[in-house]
Amino acid sequence: MSTQSLDTTASDVSSQVSIYRGEEDRLLDRAERTATPTELVLAPTELHHRNLQQRLRDAARPHNTFAFVDPETVAEELLEAAASTPTSLDRVDRLAILQSLPADSTDQPPGLRPLLSTRRDTGPQQLEQVRSEIESMTNYHPTRIEALHDVTDDFAHPIADDTTTLIDGGLAVEAWLRGRTAKAVSKTALVRRATRHLDRSGGDAWTDRYPEIERVSLVGVSSISAPHADFLHGLCTATDVDIEIHLRPGTGEYLSERLPDLFAVESPGLEGDL
Questions:
Q1: DSSP per-residue codes, 96-121
Q2: Omega of the bond prior to 158 within 30 degrees of 0, cis?
Q3: Cβ proximity of 191 and 72 under 8 Å
Q4: Which of 36, 60, 206, 210 has its Cβ near the most Cβ atoms within 10 Å?
């Protein structure tokens, strides 16, 4: 298996982040009895947490060292500690709002008209899928949105036109939803908000909420979304906590090559105008 550091030009990031491929036993070997958890184990799905917890039980190892959470829960706790009460739409809420999109093209948001006109069968579920894919790829960071447009501009026609329609459509869906709710559009929006809060607080938001945490480990990922990369980047910038990223052997090599680019954007968590 393989271990490496994150090779970026930002020394504060590269010195704090370690990447492992197929070495989750390294994490489990740290299990010991502690008064409070000293390590946050982040996983996008509850299933991977349960698998790790079962492995600890099978080995008769204590769980006390670890707090098993997902990135969205950490974001909510950071915002709640800042006297904010974060609320967000869930997928059902978003689909209900998208159901109210005008059927008449003259009343539709300009950014959505090309998508809706070229794909007559596009309904709320398809629009939500496009929106979530754009969010995962860019986290609505202006640098990534610009880079995505630059890449598609190099495609041959009509692929370039179709791809641009999808990108602009996904951004327009997000803008439409934002204009129709006082809540965050998604839990991922709370992750962006928490990332910005980490920076503004100079790390105090983290130490106030997680004073005993020495390490954050991201596990169980076959891909790393831009929102999660930005959150870890923001954590590096605002704190001195160590970060481990545990990748699966099958996709680990590719993701290791992608990570420096994901961590390269300035002002992680920044949202551009949509």
A1: HHHTTS-SSGGGS-TTTHHHHHH-TT
A2: yes
A3: yes
A4: 206
In angstroms, the CA 164 to CA 187 distance is 26
Q: What are the strands of the beta sheet with 17-21, ordered from one edge?
A: 2-5, 17-21, 242-247, 215-221, 39-42, 66-69
**Which residues fall within 8 angstroms of residue 29, CB to CB, at 6 or more apart?**
none
Beta pairing partners, 18: 5, 244
Q: pLDDT of 103-162, one tens digit each?
A: 777 788 888 888 888 766 788 999 999 999 999 999 999 999 999 999 988 887 888 888
Give the amino acid at 248.
Answer: R
Q: What is the pTM of this model?
A: 0.90
State the Cα–Cα distance between residues 1 and 3, nearest whole angstrom.
7
Extract the tokens encoding 165. 């329609």
- The residues pairing with 143 across neighbouring beta strands, listed in sequence order, are none
Q: Where are the beta strands (DSSP E) in 107-266?
A: 215-221, 242-247
Region of residue 44 (phi > 0: left; psi between -120 and 50: alpha; otherwise: beta): alpha
Query: Helices 226-238 and 71-81, interaxial angle, to 10°?
Result: 50
